[in-house]
Each structure stands twice: as structure tokens, then as C-alpha cells.
Amino acid sequence: MFRRKTTETPAEPTPVKTNGKGRPTPSRKEAEAAAKQRAKLPRDRKALAKHQRELRMESSRKMREALKSGDEAYLPARDRGPVRRFVRDFIDTRLNISELLAPLLILILIISTGVFGANSAAIANTLWMATILLVVIDVFWLRFRVRRAVRQRFPEEPLKGITWYAVMRAVNMRFLRLPKPQVKIGQPLPEHYR
């Protein structure tokens, strides 16, 4: 009748499941709003594809408008942030030799066809070498100035990708740049970009 107490080790606790859904349960209001949204979506494949295409077109339209106006909310990821905006403004306030590269190359191509006589090839070659030399010097000078300016204004931000972003913007002619320039040549830059 009486049992003797034995010293048994307690059984190990069962492991707790950790493979949950990874997010909190939505509130009733959120769940009802999501259900209403799902109810609005078309059920057949063609209508759903049309709906998705309209959403993509709307998103593209907003991005194109942002590229024209400089609206930070809809810009592509590569153009977002105060550092990138500062670099764009820094490039747009000066006239770069690099942005004259395309017109100079077209001029060199016209000269090299021989329109201007026998010395056309020599003139084109000289102009070609001078253009390349000036662009290389301008790019290195631009790199130095941009990195120094970013380091002064944003000391905690990394400089990775800044040089390439600045050079690609500087090589484009002003009217082809996207996002469109928001400052004029020679205009002083704003003090804060936050």
C-alpha cells in the first residue's frame, strides 16, 4: 500500500516549437481589411494579370515623376538618401569637361571623315587624345573634390560607390541626367541635407 519515495530524475521538458509564422498575429481590424482587399482582387487569371499590370504602370509613372521632380519617396534605391542628393547637387552646380565628351566625340568623328582636307585625320587624332586626357584629369579632380566634400558634410557615412555615382552623373550632359538637376550652375549648395 505505501510506496516508497524514490529519487528519480525528472523527465526533460519537451522542446518548445520555434517554427511559428515569424510575425505577430494581425488584429481583427487588420485581418478584416486584408480580407476586404483580397475580395476586391479579381478571381480569374486575365483580370488578375490586368490588375497587376495597372499597378506596375502606376508605380512606373510615380518613379518617372520622381526622377523629374526629385521626390525622394519614389526614387530608385540607387538615388535615395541625403548623401546621393548632395552628390547630385555637387555635380550639377559645376560645368564639367566630362559632360562635353559626347559632343566632342561627334565632332571628332565628323573631322575624321576627311571633310576638312588632307590633315583631317591628324587633327582628329590630336583632338581625340586631348579630349581623353582632359576627361581623365577632370574625373580624377572630380573624385578628389567629391570625396572631400562628402567626408566634410557626412563624416559618419561610408564613401563606397560615391565616386562611380558622381562620375556617371558628370559624364552625362546636363539635360540627360536623371534625376533631373534641382540646382543651377554656380548656385550655392544648401547647408543641410538631412
Overall 3D form: elongated
| Percent range of helical residues | 40-55%
**How many extended strands?**
0
Tally of helical segments? 6
* Biggest sheet layout: none
Q: What is the helix/strand order? A: HHHHHH
**Amino-to-carboxy terminus distance:** 81 Å
Structural class estimated from helices and strands:
mainly alpha
- Indicate the mean pLDDT: 85
Q: Pick out the low-confidence regions.
A: none
Features:
single chain, mainly alpha, 54% helix
Give a written overview of the molecule:
This protein has a domain of 101 residues. The protein has 194 residues and is mostly helical. The model has no long low-confidence stretch (mean pLDDT 85). It has 6 helices and no strands. It starts with 27 loop residues before the first helix and ends in a 23-residue tail after the last helix.
Short description:
By secondary structure, the protein is mainly alpha-helical. It is 54% helix and 0% strand.
Please describe the topology of this protein:
Layout: H1 28-40, H2 45-69, H3 82-92, H4 101-112, H5 120-153, H6 162-171
Helix pairs in contact: 3-6, 4-5, 5-6
